[in-house]
Design brief:
With 228 residues, this protein is mainly alpha-helical. The protein has helices spanning 2-17, 27-44, 62-72, 98-107, 113-129, 177-186, 193-201, 205-208; strands spanning 166-167, 174-175. A two-stranded antiparallel ribbon has the order 1-2. A hairpin with a 6-residue loop joins strand 1 (166-167) and strand 2. The termini are far apart.
Length: 228
């Protein structure tokens, strides 16, 4: 655990002192980082236990005291950056959440506020629809019949099994992952001709054969040919 904590602090030092934005490089920070690197390689060394104190007689760069402060400080907390557009979901791609990133990639503009509010409202409605009534106890909840349970289907191709469901961008209902990816790539609805091709690709021929009923051919014994 101590080694893991030390590695995490070293990673924090690297991200704080030696990480730069290639689109807008800070020249002063770059020069200070180069001076600190030369000081560590030539004078101080790379062993944390043998590093000189910042208040010693050795002339050290400006970022050396900051580096020692980070190394001797407790482990920093793990905090995920928040999306710069909607400010509600954790950012995963270019400082944006997945929804804002896909909208920016498709339309070239930030995701508007009306869609952000609509997504929040849908999440609240879906979470409140499954909430338990306070007047009814947990053991008195009616158990639904799984045969009568309504299964979700794609509004475009009609399949009922997919890895992830998405909101229909051209109407009501939901889209499967294949139809949503096709719409984001081609900017049009997935045509029905591709449904048949996908269905043909997904047919498992081995499942269509009943191997128990298949009779193996019996070995035949060849009779000797009479020369007479």
């Amino acid at each position: 655990l101590a080694k893991e904590d030390h590695i995490y602090r070293l990673n924090h030092v690297i991200n704080t002192l030696f990480r730069f934005n290639l689109h807008a490089v800070d020249i002063d920070k770059l020069r200070s980082a180069i001076k600190l690197t030369n000081f560590l390689f030539d004078v101080a060394g790379l062993d944390q236990t043998c590093l000189p104190r910042p208040d010693s007689s050795i002339h050290h760069p400006r970022l050396y005291s900051i580096m020692m402060k980070i190394l001797n400080s407790p482990r920093p907390p793990k905090s995920k950056p928040v999306c710069h557009n909607c400010n509600t979901k954790p950012a995963s791609r270019r400082k944006l959440c997945v929804a804002c990133y896909r909208y920016q990639l498709k339309h070239g503009i930030p995701r508007p506020l009306r869609l952000i509010i609509a997504s929040r409202h849908n999440c609240r409605v879906s979470s409140s629809s499954f909430s338990v009534s306070p007047t009814r106890s947990s053991h008195q909840q009616p158990v639904g019949n799984p045969a009568t349970k309504i299964r979700k289907s794609c509004a475009n191709c009609g399949i009922q099994h997919t890895h992830q469901w998405y909101r229909n961008l051209c109407g009501t209902g939901h889209w499967c992952e294949t139809c949503k990816s096709y719409y984001l790539r081609h900017s049009r609805v997935r045509p029905p001709q591709l449904f048949v091709k996908a269905a043909k690709r997904k047919v498992d021929v081995r499942a269509l054969v009943n191997w128990s009923s298949v009779a193996l051919p019996s070995p035949t014994i060849e009779e000797p040919i009479d020369s007479s």
